[in-house]
Design brief:
Blueprint (H helix, E strand, L loop, with lengths): L5 E7 L4 E4 L11 H11 L2 E7 H7 L1 H4 L7 H12 L1 E5 L11 E4 L4 H10 L3 E5 L1 H9 L5 E6 L7 E3 L9 E8 L5 E7 L2
Parallel strand pairs: 1-6, 1-7, 3-4, 3-6, 4-5
Antiparallel strand pairs: 2-8, 7-10, 9-10
Helix pairs in contact: 1-4
Length: 187
């Protein structure tokens, strides 16, 4: 059995931010075509590693009323509920989502062991948690959805002070102007 990959995936502005200076990320909502493609990738994952803030944003999928939602929204809610989730937080007392556990600190060795034993790939979500995984040399692939938007500052997708060699494995353009880029870490 091959080792599972750790994938850092996110939607960014052209200038590399996942949220603007005010913390807004409403500009990053994918349309149906992009969301369907994201679901294709996310549906291959078995576990989501999330920081506290990212968990607070994503847990919405647990209770979203789906009756009036698009097929892509309904599909992602299913993907979210079926995946295992690990939330890294020193302040969260309890979780409100299924298949979820809390870890108090990011342990690179525990993530390495998870990669060795997982039967499906793993996602790390959010730039703060991802920076720990990137700096520990754990991220195998980067999946970047670049929105046709410049926000001029905010929360960066990638950390400072990291130098990695990457190889482009896949690219795709969407009608909305979004570009998907998939890179393998070659460092």
């Amino acid at each position: 059995m091959a080792m599972a990959k750790l994938i850092y995936s996110g939607i960014t502005s052209l200038d590399g931010y996942i949220a603007d200076r005010k913390g807004n990320f409403d500009w990053s909502a994918p349309d149906e075509e992009v969301h369907t493609f994201i679901n294709r990738n996310e549906g291959l994952l078995g576990t989501f590693l999330l920081g506290r803030h990212m968990y607070d944003v994503m847990v919405w999928w647990e209770t979203l009323p789906l009756a009036d939602e698009s097929p892509a929204m309904q599909d992602f809610a299913r993907i979210w509920k079926e995946a295992d989730k690990v939330v890294y937080s020193t302040t969260l007392d309890a979780v409100s989502s299924t298949r979820t556990r809390i870890e108090r600190s990011f342990d690179p060795e525990a993530v390495r062991q998870l990669k060795e034993t997982a039967d499906r790939d793993i996602s790390v979500a959010g730039p703060v948690l991802a920076s720990h995984a990137i700096k520990a040399g754990l991220v195998d692939e980067f999946h970047v959805y670049v929105m046709p938007m410049i926000v001029g500052g905010g929360k960066q997708f990638l950390p400072d002070d990291v130098r990695l060699r990457v190889e482009l494995l896949e690219e795709r353009r969407f009608a909305s102007g979004v570009v998907y880029l998939r890179y393998r870490n070659r460092s």
